[in-house]
Request: fold
Amino acid sequence: MLSQRFKFALQDVIVGLSHYHIWLLLAWQDTKQRYRRSVIGPFWITISTGIMVALMGPLYGALFKQPVGPYLQYLVVSMVIWTFISGFIIESCNAFIAAEEYIKQIKLPLSVHLLRVLTKNLITLLHNLLIVFLVLVFFPPENFWGLVLMPLGVFLVFGNLLWIGLILAILCARFRDIPLIVTNLVQACFFLSPIIWKVEMLGRNRFMADFNPIYHFMEILRAPLLGNSSATLSWMVSGALLLFGSVLTLLVFSRFRSRIAYWV
Amino acid sequence: MSVIVAKDLVIDFPIYGSTGSRSFKKILMNAATGGALAKDAGERVVVRALDHVSFELKEGDRVGLVGHNGSGKSTLLRVLTGVYEPASGYLEVRGRVTSMLSITLGMDMEATGLENIYLRAQIMGLRRKQIDAMIDEIAEFSGIGEYLNLPMRTYSSGMSMRLAFAISTSIDADIILMDEWLSVGDADFMEKASLRMDNMVKNARIVVLASHNHDLIKKQCNKIITLEHGKVVSVQ
Reply:
């Protein structure tokens, strides 16, 4: 019985991935719908991130007594990655709830609805990368060899986000208080993680960041763009979480996959 | 050969919200207090929508589902779509199911008629290349004309439905599930539409149609399943 359910759950994810034309279409439609009739459309995302960073950079740079150039570079890369991670986690809570109409009318793998949310946030990320690019041109990092490992970092972070998003989407479909809890936790994470502050500022209290998975996810994407190499610990934590989390999520998904249509 | 086999299908809908069992607080309280404070959290309220439903459908069957409101017709259609997995019982559907439960699913009022043809058809499982080949036919049949390049929100409700109908009926269906017969538009269009529906239904292997219109069922179906309170009362 369990093995049968496990097979269905795994099938849902694999078939969901292969339905890329559906989730690409829906994610693109979501983005278009949001910015329809606006003159510069999704580039508002780029502008708003740009303005925020331009305002925050000098202020927090002064507060933390950081040289402007390197701090701005750090802040831009951090904020862009954080916007992606936090945006996805918050939206994944509603992945199934918002797709109620689809879930109740046609047979599609449920993972399609989560991939739609991931893709939508990826489209936002791509718009924001424009700012990262600009900052890297004006304040180039000392070396780019860390970028060699970038594909692996992207794989690890996306893999982790997928299991986190799937388990949240399932739990939130059942318990409608969880989306609200998650939104609050994500907000807290913004201050608790090294995004506007640097991990070195913790000094002897560095362990506070080491226990924070968000820090490790950010680090494996951020360090190569800043010309550093990510700490081995970040790679290990991200890899271990991916393994452990995927198994956990697949077990939860196996158990409740067939109930989700009744919950939404 | 049987294409659809259903044996002792049972569908229970859990009712959340009315008892508050969906709230995380209730479950937490329940765990913390051992059930003394929020007893209802454990006792799920369920509605039995389908109660041991069994039938077999063969190639060529045109099935009419009849019954009062709330007798389980729509639920049964959704089970056949594969949306609701039965709590117990056995269901086998051999073939490709085309759900006509909502012919506008996937369409976007802000998008143009042309964009909507792609949206709707892709949701129905077609790929862009296949749609490219069908687009002229759909555009012509719907009679939307130059409005195709305008957002759908500028359409009258009749025009939107004509477009949705034209797209939804343009695909080759194997097993068709319908909640009420599709009839849209003005008198002229209805005549065209009725021909197109007959054609689509003729080419399908199995059609399951839920309807309150007895004349229509008599005309279109060769098998009638009557549901009452989620049970099959008769198969003719």
Observations:
- The first strand of chain B starts at residue 2 and ends at 15.
- Chain B is about 35% helix and 25% strand.
- Residues 34-41 of chain B have pLDDT under 50 and may be disordered.
